[in-house]
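Q: Here's a chain of 73 amino acids. Please give me its 3D structure as tokens.
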Amino acid sequence: MIRLQEVKAEDRKLLWNINQKYLYEMTKYYPDNMDEQGNYHYGYFDAYFTDAERKAFFIYDDEIMVGFVMLNP
């Protein structure tokens, strides 16, 4: 069964890591270079932990994480 689990503050690093993989994959379609630390920039990442209107969820198929979604108004 597919389910969503809201990302909590303690899961921030996991979301960051998964999002970095997504941003890397998107470089096939959009020019985006890594920064000096080897990360891709996403300017709104921190807002998902401070802005009540932004929500992030991990997507699970039964107990296996299969993705994530980051929603904003």
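Q: Can you summarize the key feature?
A: Residues 2-71 form one domain.
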